[in-house]
Amino acid sequence: MAGGVVIIGAGHAGGAAAGFLRQYGFDGPIALIGAEAYPPYQRPPLSKAWLKGEAGLDDLYLRGDSFYADQGMVTRFSTQATAIDRANKIVTLSDGEALPYEHLIIATGSRARPYPGAERVPHHTLRTLDDAEALKNALRPGQHIGLIGAGYVGLEVAASARHLGCEVTIFEKEPRILARVASADLSGFFTDMHRARGAEIVTDCTITELSLGDGDKKRVHLSDGSRRDFDLLLVGIGGLANTELAEAAGLDVANGVVVDDEARASDPAIFAIGDVTSRTLPFYEGRFRLESVPNALEQAKQAAAAITGHKPPVVETPWFWSDQYDFKLQIAGLLQADTRAILRGDPASGAFSVYHLDTQGRLRTAECVNRPADFRAAKLLIARGPALDEAVIRDPDAPLKPFLTAPPVA
Description:
The chain is α/β, with parallel strands linked by helices.
């Protein structure tokens, strides 16, 4: 492996980085290390098509079975990296193998955030293919599933479970679902949509304990003294970055491995990409840890470009998506304080957007439900920064294209 690249983490980010290295002309050794038994695969379908039985392994895998061998890559799946020796540029694996590197890419991703006390009660999380397969096998018509946490993954699982004929109850400690990641307009729409399809949503609630109920039921105790029994539980309260290996190696870590705009960590020979990173963005102040496929792909390109001398990618407006029933939510940008929400379209129609403008009239965030043209325009408007006319934004039939040629606010 002398002169080679070692990639720790064989998820979407790590698998993409390996491919981009070859695409950008790197002909040296590449080793791809993955703790899971599978080659790199897509995670977004796990809560949707996989649970519903509409996708197979071939639909998930990023590349065909022979790609990595055909590209001369070494793969070590079902294998953990246990230590990084920065002084000697060596990665030690759980089977004792030592891999030297010239460049190292950390793509260790994130794990499900544990719920206090949940370890005493059998429950599901959804982060990996094995997690999704276990949940898929447990979901049967007529069963009642309790979901703790009303984030996007939890709501996607709720939609899939209802599709499969399960009863669904969602618990959220905040006053509304998606409270930390979405506007009140968007929360209200998805609350009404899920309830109309038979899901029970309990907000502003405090769970005091999880226990075993009668038979093999899982019991949720609430602060009002009530108790609810379920056939299965899913805990979905966010993720934690897998930074332990980076921290042990002495890299700078602050809610993720700290990287620059080349995805380079505090050691110039080491890069970090994907969910595990803390990065800056050109349109927003501060550092952010983004859990999204677009972020993973962008940082994979950044690292591969820096290693090969290839032209770096243009930094995109961060974006995200969620599919629930027949509704596609697409979000451009990050929610910011001190913005005002402008509704574009009627939520009752099932197709609308919420544009968030700052004090200078610039678009900072757009939440678009079944409005793909609004989403595409929003990504460009956030990057270019012109002042927008609220009257035009409020008219769902008004074209946004003229704003794309307007000068940015100084």
